[in-house]
UniProtKB/TrEMBL annotation:
<feature type="transmembrane region" description="Helical">
    <location>
        <begin position="410"/>
        <end position="430"/>
    </location>
</feature>
<keyword id="KW-1133">Transmembrane helix</keyword>
<keyword id="KW-0813">Transport</keyword>
<protein>
    <submittedName>
        <fullName>Solute:Na+ symporter, SSS family</fullName>
    </submittedName>
</protein>
<feature type="transmembrane region" description="Helical">
    <location>
        <begin position="123"/>
        <end position="147"/>
    </location>
</feature>
<dbReference type="InterPro" id="IPR050277">
    <property type="entry name" value="Sodium:Solute_Symporter"/>
</dbReference>
<keyword id="KW-0812">Transmembrane</keyword>
<feature type="transmembrane region" description="Helical">
    <location>
        <begin position="187"/>
        <end position="207"/>
    </location>
</feature>
<feature type="transmembrane region" description="Helical">
    <location>
        <begin position="219"/>
        <end position="242"/>
    </location>
</feature>
<feature type="transmembrane region" description="Helical">
    <location>
        <begin position="39"/>
        <end position="60"/>
    </location>
</feature>
<dbReference type="InterPro" id="IPR001734">
    <property type="entry name" value="Na/solute_symporter"/>
</dbReference>
<dbReference type="InterPro" id="IPR038377">
    <property type="entry name" value="Na/Glc_symporter_sf"/>
</dbReference>
<feature type="transmembrane region" description="Helical">
    <location>
        <begin position="384"/>
        <end position="403"/>
    </location>
</feature>
<comment type="similarity">
    <text>Belongs to the sodium:solute symporter (SSF) (TC 2.A.21) family.</text>
</comment>
<dbReference type="Pfam" id="PF00474">
    <property type="entry name" value="SSF"/>
</dbReference>
<feature type="transmembrane region" description="Helical">
    <location>
        <begin position="360"/>
        <end position="378"/>
    </location>
</feature>
<feature type="transmembrane region" description="Helical">
    <location>
        <begin position="436"/>
        <end position="456"/>
    </location>
</feature>
Length: 461
């Protein structure tokens, strides 16, 4: 089947955008201080909290990478395996949610400083800001490509629309408004994906026809990947989720420990529905459109579906991207305000001043994200490593705070440095030897360094 854009799909994007903007403006009127802006006044109940966790985690990486690309390129079973990191990560967050709330910190850097000192905070802040700006840039360009494919809109105009929506929704009301738009978007995602699955299987001629039209390797357990290569696809998302500042901020913003735990379990159950749904849709797309970019597999199906269903799926995809983008942008701006501005530039800043500066940093970082993908597209290749840089550089150190009392200050800091340096050397200097993701190397090294250095620097009783 040939791809042919359908401009009528723009109506669904327009309706979604107007709804999100309206909700954002309404919720912004309830923001009175920085606690409201950053942590939604610690008022998130289990339903809204589950929705914002879901919408934040499932973004452009899922619908144009992750499950989508793996299912299209390697097969349905390897794609299903990508659920494993998410399940493990959510279960760990469920366990430590009360401890996250007890810390009462706005950023991951604040938690690391409490355990390892100022150097750890500074290093973590740099890692978070650089990684999150890269992630935001992918959301912007992701929506631009999707709108170009489905509606015929130019990639540049689609990217500008994404940038404006992401920046506006993050700035207008902080987490107070973002959490509400996230929750609505999350439920739109679930509905759109579940409706699409049976219809796209039918459009493709049934499951037997799909199997007959894909390469034989796509029905094997590994899809032609070696075991180590497959592990390389699983580790980055796991170690990002285990220390993702967005998730920590949302759990800290819950009404109480019961709300955070109920939300985490609900999030897990919903992911068990939508992650396989994405995989199945992309797998069916491999049968219908055998010669397209793997990242466009899910979105291409909107052109093969009835207009109403395709429009809902497109709006759901936009929801994936915009909610993830504004969440990571808000989180990075929080680091700029509390870890850099408030720590080194204006230590006596008032609460109102901090909130104003956070909004200003949202705009500045949002513009940088847009410029990154508009004028320096090759930089994106470096930004692809941001997940692993973040996961290897921060996750072992942050998990040790909660699970290993014997970790030392020097052990935590050297682990962070080892994770970042190993990732950059493996990817940029050695140019990914053996086609192995750097996470297979850098994560184990960061953990080993953490343990060895901590044991070597233990204080004698």
């Amino acid at each position: 089947m040939e791809l042919q854009a359908n401009p009528q799909l723009l109506w669904f994007i327009g309706i979604y955008a107007v709804l999100m903007i309206g909700i954002g403006i309404y919720m912004s009127k309830k923001v009175s201080n920085s606690k409201d802006f950053i942590l939604a006044g610690k008022s998130l109940g289990p339903l809204v909290l589950m929705g914002t966790l879901l919408a934040t985690w499932t973004g452009s990486g899922s619908i144009s990478g992750g499950e989508t690309s793996v299912s299209y390129s390697f097969g349905i079973i390897p794609s299903f395996m990508l659920m494993i990191p998410t399940i493990v990560g959510i279960l760990v967050l469920y366990i430590i949610a009360p401890k996250i709330r007890a810390f009462g910190k706005y950023t991951i850097s604040g938690i690391l400083e409490a355990k390892y000192g100022t150097s750890a905070r500074n290093l973590a802040s740099i890692i978070v800001i650089l990684a999150y700006v890269g992630i935001v840039s992918y959301q912007m360009t992701g929506l631009g490509f999707i709108l170009n494919l489905t509606t015929g809109m130019s990639v540049q105009l689609g990217t500008i629309i994404a940038a404006v929506l992401i920046i506006f929704l993050a700035m207008i009301g902080g987490l107070r408004s973002v959490s509400q738009t996230d929750a609505i978007s999350g439920f739109l995602m679930v509905g759109g994906l579940l409706i699409t699955v049976p219809i796209i299987i039918s459009v493709a001629g049934g499951w037997d026809s799909i199997i007959a039209n894909v390469p034989d390797s796509h029905t094997t357990v590994t899809g032609g990947l070696t075991t180590v290569q497959l592990i390389g696809y699983l580790l980055p998302s796991l170690f990002l989720l285990l220390s993702d500042q967005n998730m920590y901020q949302r759990l800290a913003a819950s009404k109480g420990d019961k709300s955070s735990k109920r939300a985490a379990l609900s999030w897990l159950l919903v992911m068990l529905l939508i992650s396989p749904a994405i995989s199945i849709i992309a797998f069916a797309s491999r049968s219908i459109f055998p010669d397209i970019d793997p990242g466009m597999a899910l979105m291409a199906t909107t052109l093969a579906l009835p207009l109403g269903v395709g429009g809902i799926l497109l709006a759901a995809a936009a929801a994936f991207i915009i909610t993830t983008g504004n969440s990571y942008l808000l989180s990075a701006a929080t680091n700029m305000t509390y870890d850099i501005y408030g720590k080194y530039i204006n230590k006596n800043a008032t609460d109102k001043k901090q909130m104003v500066m956070t909004k200003l940093f949202i705009v500045i970082l949002g513009v940088i994200s847009y410029l990154l993908i508009s004028y320096f597209p090759t930089v994106l290749e470096v930004q692809m490593y941001s997940y692993t840089v973040y996961g290897a550089g921060i996750t072992p150190a942050i998990l040790a705070v909660f699970f290993w009392k014997r970790v030392t200050k020097l052990g935590g800091i050297t682990s962070m440095v080892a994770g970042v340096v190993t990732t950059l050397v493996w990817e940029l200097v050695l140019n990914t030897p053996f086609d192995l993701n750097s996470s297979v190397i850098s994560v184990p090294i960061a953990i080993i360094v953490l343990i060895v250095v901590s044991l070597a620097t233990q204080k004698k009783k």
